[in-house]
Specification:
TIM Barrel, 8-stranded parallel beta barrel, 5-stranded antiparallel β-sheet, 22 strands
C-alpha cells in the first residue's frame, strides 16, 4: 500500500512569533540578544546563493501549438511509490505530454517548503526532497526540450516562508540593528512599531526581547519581500540566474499584482525589470505574470501587459459572470465569446499575447460546472465546446493538468484548495504512477473514473478532442496571431428561423479573412452567414458529434457543439 508523506498544512498562527525556528510560536527568545555580535556570528548568518554549471539544452524544433500545461507537481505522477508526484514522474510521462501537443510545462513551485503547495519557499536554491534533486530537474529540462517543450518554473518573488533561514536572518539583523554589507534586514518589510495604516497586514515577531513587525499580505507565514531594496533585487536575480543555468526556459511569476501593495505602477516597473533581466540571460525565455486582483478589468489588462510580460487573463472577472466555461454551459452565449476576446486582445500591450485558461490550481475544476447536464452525451458535448472556445482563441491557452480527461475537484465545504489539486488518473486499475491526495483533501463528489491511458484509443474521448484542437491550432497560426472581431452579433437570420446559439468570429491574418463559428447547441443547426460576410469555403474544424459539416456559399450546416474554420472567398 502506498504511503502518503505529504506535509501538513499550516495552522493559524498567533499574532506574535519568535525568531529562531526551534522556539514555540509566541514565546520570547533569550538565546538571541540584540547585538551585532550575535547577529554576525556564524550560527546566525545565512549563506545566500549558489552557483551551478549551466547545462546545455539540446537544439530541437519546438512545438508550434503555443499551448501551456500547468502541473501541480505533487499530484501528477509518482515515480518511487511514496504517494507524492515528483520530477522523475513528469519526465517518465513526457511522451504523453508531447502527444498532447503542449509547448510549455508550467511546474508549480518545486522548492523546499513546509506546506504541500510549496508557495512559501524556504530555500530558493534547492529542490524539495520529495520532488527529487537538482539533477532530476535538469534532466527533465533536457528531455522536455528534446520533445519540443519548455519547462517554465513557478517563481514566488512576492514573499518567502517565515521559516526560511533567509527571513530568520533578516529578522535577527533588523532586531539587533546589524547593518553590515552582508545584512539581510532590508530584504523584508520590517517596522519597529505596528503601522497605523492597514494594521491587519502586519504581524509581530519577538526577537531578542524586541517585538518587530513585518508585512504579510497573504498569510502570517508568508512575509513580504522589500522589492525596493537593491540587495534584495540582486539576490532575486541570483535566484533567476541559478534556475536558468539549471535548465529552466522561463518563469511563471506568482502574484505580481501584490509585489507592491496597491501600487500598479511599481508592480509593472518591477515586472519590466524582471523581464529585461531574464531575457538578458536567455533570449528565448517564456515569461508570464499572474495578475488576479479583486477587481480585474480591461484597465488592469492594459496596465500590466505594458510590462511586456505575458499576462494571465481571468476572463470570468473581466466579464462579470461569463467565461469560456459559462459560455459553453449556457444558451445564447456563443456570440458573446468573441466580444470578450476582442476586448482582451485590444487592451493587451507590449507585444505580448494574452493567456487564457478554463481553470488552474486556485479554481474549481471545470468538470463540476457541467454536472447539470444529466445526459452523458450532452455533458460531453458541452465539455468539448468549452475546450474549443479555449484552444481556438488567440494568444497562449493554458491547460490545467487532468483537464483533458475531465478530472474533478471543487473546494467544497472543507474550504480547502487541496480538493482542486487531486491526483492525475493514468489508469482506472493498476495505476502505479497515481499519487495520494494532498493533505486536507476530502473530495467525494463527481469524479472521472477512466484515466489517460484508458481513453487514449477512444476517438470520442475528451482527451482526443483536446489533441485534435491542439493539432488544429498548430496547423493554422491565425489562431495564435490573428486579429479577432465579432461578426453581426449572436443572431443570424435564416428565413423564418433565428439562430441564437451560433457565434461567428471574424479573423484577419496574412491579408486574408477567416470566420470561426461555434455552435453551442447540443443539436445540429442550419443557417446563412450574414450578407456582409459574403461566401466562404470550409477549411477545417472539429465535429464532436461526428457529423460532417456542409458549407455552400453562405449556407452552413454544422453538428452539435461543432467549431468550423472558414475562409472568405
Amino acid at each position: 500500500m502506498r504511503k502518503s508523506v505529504w506535509r501538513g498544512l499550516f495552522l493559524s498562527c498567533p499574532f506574535l512569533l519568535s525568531c529562531g525556528g526551534s522556539l514555540p510560536e509566541g514565546s520570547l527568545s533569550s538565546e538571541v540578544p540584540p547585538s551585532s555580535e550575535a547577529a554576525s556570528s556564524p550560527s546566525s548568518r545565512y549563506e545566500f546563493g549558489k552557483s551551478i554549471d549551466p547545462i546545455s539544452l539540446p537544439e530541437a524544433e519546438e512545438s508550434k501549438s503555443g499551448v501551456g500545461y500547468e502541473i501541480f507537481v505533487g499530484s501528477f505522477a509518482d515515480s518511487n511509490g511514496d504517494g507524492i508526484g515528483d520530477l522523475n514522474g513528469i519526465r517518465n510521462h513526457l511522451d504523453y505530454l508531447a502527444s498532447l501537443g503542449v509547448t510549455y510545462l508550467w511546474l508549480t513551485p518545486i522548492h523546499p517548503s513546509s506546506t504541500y503547495h510549496h508557495y512559501d519557499v524556504e530555500d530558493y536554491f534547492s529542490v524539495a526532497p520529495e520532488f527529487g534533486t537538482m539533477e532530476d530537474f535538469s534532466s527533465l529540462c533536457v528531455e522536455a526540450k528534446k520533445r519540443g517543450m519548455k519547462v517554465v518554473l513557478d517563481m514566488v518573488l512576492n514573499h518567502a516562508s517565515k521559516k526560511s533561514p533567509w527571513f530568520q536572518a533578516a529578522l535577527k539583523d533588523f532586531a539587533s540593528g546589524y547593518s553590515a554589507p552582508d545584512s539581510y534586514k532590508d530584504d523584508f518589510v520590517f517596522y519597529d512599531a505596528l503601522p497605523s495604516s492597514s494594521p491587519s497586514r502586519f504581524y509581530g515577531a519577538n526577537c531578542g526581547g524586541k517585538t518587530v513587525y513585518y508585512e504579510a499580505n497573504f498569510d502570517s507565514n508568508m512575509p513580504e519581500f522589500n522589492l525596493d531594496s537593491p540587495s534584495l533585487r540582486k539576490r532575486q536575480q541570483q535566484i533567476l540566474s541559478y534556475w536558468l543555468s539549471a535548465g529552466a526556459s522561463g518563469f511563471r511569476f506568482d502574484g505580481v499584482y501584490y509585489y507592491y501593495y496597491q501600487n500598479d505602477l511599481k508592480n509593472v516597473a518591477y515586472c519590466k525589470a524582471l523581464r529585461e533581466f531574464v531575457l538578458s540571460k536567455r533570449s528565448g525565455a517564456y515569461l508570464v505574470g499572474e495578475v488576479w486582483p479583486s477587481s480585474f478589468g480591461n484597465d488592469t489588462i492594459s496596465t500590466y501587459s505594458s510590462s511586456g510580460m505575458a499576462l494571465f487573463n481571468f476572463l470570468s472577472s473581466v466579464t462579470g459572470s461569463s467565461s469560456f466555461v459559462s459560455y459553453a454551459g449556457q444558451k445564447k452565449k456563443a456570440g458573446v465569446v468573441f466580444s470578450d476576446i476582442v476586448s482582451v486582445q485590444s487592451k493587451t500591450q507590449g507585444g505580448t499575447e494574452p493567456v487564457f485558461f478554463l481553470s488552474n490550481h486556485d479554481q474549481d475544476r471545470v468538470r463540476g460546472y457541467f454536472s447539470k447536464y444529466k445526459d452523458p452525451t450532452e455533458r460531453l458535448l458541452k465539455r468539448k465546446l468549452a475546450s474549443s472556445y479555449l484552444l481556438l482563441t488567440p494568444g497562449t491557452p493554458f491547460l490545467y493538468y487532468g483537464e483533458e480527461i475531465d478530472l474533478g475537484g471543487v473546494r467544497g465545504n472543507a474550504n480547502t484548495d487541496a480538493n482542486r489539486r487531486l491526483p492525475f488518473i493514468w489508469k482506472e486499475n493498476g495505476d502505479e504512477a497515481r499519487c495520494a491526495a494532498p493533505d486536507g483533501a476530502d473530495y467525494s463528489g463527481d469524479q472521472a473514473s477512466l484515466g489517460a491511458i484508458d481513453v487514449e484509443n477512444d476517438p470520442n474521448s475528451l482527451l482526443n478532442h483536446y489533441k485534435a484542437l491542439i493539432s488544429l491550432r498548430a496547423k493554422y497560426p491565425l489562431f495564435q496571431k490573428g486579429a479577432y472581431s465579432r461578426l453581426s452579433g449572436s443572431t443570424l437570420e435564416d428565413g423564418e428561423t433565428f439562430i441564437r446559439t451560433v457565434g461567428v468570429g471574424k479573423i484577419e491574418y496574412g491579408g486574408k479573412t477567416y470566420y470561426l463559428i461555434h455552435n453551442e447547441d447540443v443539436s445540429p443547426v442550419s443557417f446563412l452567414l450574414p450578407e456582409e460576410a459574403g461566401e466562404a469555403a470550409l477549411l477545417d474544424g472539429v465535429y464532436p458529434d461526428g457529423q460532417a459539416p456542409s458549407v455552400s456559399g453562405r449556407r452552413i450546416q454544422m453538428g452539435a457543439c461543432a467549431s468550423l474554420l472558414l475562409e472568405k472567398k
